[in-house]
């Protein structure tokens, strides 16, 4: 039993909005039918009910604009031009994109609507459509409208930023399409994030201003980039300079050779080898001098040429590898596709 009651309550909750939409939509459908049959006096009360504060059903902005537009058209047919202009203006104030098809409406209706456009100043923007845009071959499209001639400035900027890219700065009248190449203020591809198209307009016929804006999200679709290789560290390179201890080692090695020569000469000394001691002394002297010379050379020229050349080659190879990685990344970035999606819930 409780389950049945819960289902009934849920059905009532869901039926409310549906009935509301159905009520307004049905009312407008009946009004349009009477209008098309030129039964103006039967269409007018139905349309007035939809815009009345006491109308019990939900009315969307589009439905309200439709009601105002048909009220203006019906009254224009009834030769009540001033009243027609009032309702046409109400429609334009809510949706500046409202237009009358010259093939479906009479000259009297078009004249009243034109007067309403001159007396009403409003600017509007269409919602941004979801799209994938290759900035090399295509553009992101925006649409704005003014109800009559105006000085218009349209600027695209990252949400929260003070400045952006000016897409339009001139006079405009009616619907105008803008194209964006995807580049930011610095001439580089705009980074991912939320963006706003802000349109400011000043009427050329009346001393009034109006503005409109639309938000969208921008994402980059690009192949994964490669990381460059890190700089070579000490562990990756050969020592390029001899240390002081290495230079001292040269002397020690020479002295060691000299000492060894003298020891050997002492062990081998006998009457048959009288010249051995002199030869050992010569060897010892040469070894000592060689060690000292090597020490001095190390002190004055501590570089190790072979290691320096080897390290240079390693650095050049690393630089060439990173240059190739950056070139491949630049190529991938050049093929970036812009993914545009409306920013739901942001803006008026």
Q: In words, what does this structure look like?
A:
With 348 residues, this protein is α+β, with helices and mostly antiparallel strands. The protein has 3 domains: 2-119, Tetratricopeptide repeat domain (Serine Threonine Protein Phosphatase 5, Tetratricopeptide repeat, Alpha Horseshoe); 123-223 and 337-342, Immunoglobulin-like (Sandwich), CATH 2.60.40; 234-334. It is 49% helix and 20% strand. Strands 1, 2, 3, 4, 5, 6 and 7 form a 7-stranded antiparallel sheet that branches. α3 packs across α5 (107-119) and α4 packs across α5 (107-119). The protein is elongated. The two termini are 45 Å apart. The model is unreliable at 1-20 (pLDDT under 50).
User: Which percent band covers the strand fraction?
Assistant: 15-25%
Portion in helices? 40-55%
Number of helices: 8
Largest sheet data = 7 strands, antiparallel
Sheet/helix structural class: alpha+beta
Overall morphology? elongated
Low-confidence segments, given as residue ranges, are 1-20
CATH-defined fold name of the largest domain: Serine Threonine Protein Phosphatase 5, Tetratricopeptide repeat
Let me know the CATH homologous superfamily of the largest domain.
Tetratricopeptide repeat domain
What is the name of the CATH architecture of the largest domain? Answer: Alpha Horseshoe
Head-to-tail CA distance between termini = 45 Å
